[in-house]
Amino acid sequence: MPDIIGASLAGCAAALELLRHGQPARLHEKSSFPRHKVCGEFLDPQAVTLLSDVPLSGTPINGVALIWPSAESRFPLPAPALGISRYRLDQTLLDAALASGAELIRDTAKPHAAAIVAHGRKPLSQKGQRLFGFKAHFAGPTNDDVELHFNSFGYTGVNPIEDGLTNVCGVAREEDLKDTAFDIDRWISNQPKLAARLQGRVRQMDWLFTGPLFYGPTEASVGYLCGDALSFVDPFTGSGMLCAVATGQLAARSVLQGLTTEHHTEACRRLLMPAFRWSSLMRRALHWPLVPVLAQTLSGAWLYRKSRPSLQGSAPRNTQSRR
To answer: Which of 30, 147, 174, 234 has its CA 20 to 30 A from that of 123?
Structure first.
């Protein structure tokens, strides 16, 4: 029975893929669900399709807004996305996996060569400028857009989730957060458009933090890596949960086909690297002075498409068995 280290988004996606093909799945998870997690909580339309056989209850998201202090750009999504908290999503996927026959073991199993590794991102040492993520839920009026508010060298995403709540999740430089003693309410109050967007909404939880963030591949590990254990994409693209689901399913297919971990990693690279390169370029460009003006002339659909992986042709191409 394949071991899956981690029962969050990528791990459960892998388990469900194994179970769909009539194979058993054993999930190892040390944390108790449900639990909150720093996340944009935006389930991309492609991810919604990948999980179409799981009953998900969230809030439809139909549009995107890119907002700078001096300009805005808005465009529709190619298909509805879903706003859903990790508190609900991870529990729903775990319940679905268990109902389909997965085994759950509450332990801290170590990765091994034959395991699907979905334990999330391990802390990495980082020099120079450090970035931190933050998140909280707010009650109050909602809409059907995901908004990205850019300020200085950071950004904050605002989108509806289930139960009439709004998720507010962002990334900022450590030095900027230190200026407000990591008081996110104060940090938001210094950004007029973002503060106006949240006016009349009441925060429902303490701010959660994560970091330092490191974009790109993880340090070397063993097993069939997926999700954040494999690589971490800049959250502003809204493709983080899509990458987790897609690579989780890809890891399961690699195991089913008996591929080596090297061939699995190569398949993931083909899937993710084009979008990662574009995301890295866009992240650097978003704060250039002329970008807010240019963004109003560029096709939003084109920018959106370039920033996420294409799932066509993502299946492993090599059928070499493990040794």
So the answer is: 147
Q: What single string gives the DSSP state of each residue in 110-130?
A: PP-TTSEE---PPP----SS-
Q: Any idea which architecture 3-39+86-124+214-306 has in CATH? A: 3-Layer(bba) Sandwich (3.50)
Give the H/E segment covering residue 13.
Answer: helix 9-20
Beta bridge partners of 172: 132
Convert the pLDDT of each residue in 142-156 to its tens digit.
Answer: 999 999 998 877 889
Q: Is 170 helix (H, G, I), strand (E, B) or coil?
A: strand
Helix (H, G, I), strand (E, B) or coil at 191: coil
For 179-237, the pLDDT digits (tens) are 999 999 999 999 999 999 999 999 999 999 988 877 666 665 789 999 988 876 666 77
Give the count of alpha carbons within 13 A of 157, CB side only. Answer: 26
CA 289 to chain centroid: 28
Q: How many residues does the chain have?
A: 323
Q: What per-residue confidence (pLDDT) applies to 124?
A: 53
At residue 267, φ and ψ (nearest 5 deg) are -65, -40
Instruction: Go through 2-14 and write b for each residue having 16 or more CB atoms within 10 A of its CB, e for each that does not.
Output: bbbbbbbbbbbbb
d(CA 201, CA 285) in angstroms, rounded, equals 31
How confident is the model at residue 208, as a pLDDT? 97
Angle in degrees, CA 91, 110, 321, rounded to 5: 95
- In which region does residue 282 sit, left (phi positive, over 0), alpha (psi from -120 to 50) or beta (all else)? alpha
Per-residue pLDDT tens over the stretch 248-262: 999 999 999 999 999
Cis peptide bond upstream of 212, omega within 30: yes
Task: Confirm if 288 and 260 have CB atoms less than 8 A apart.
Answer: no
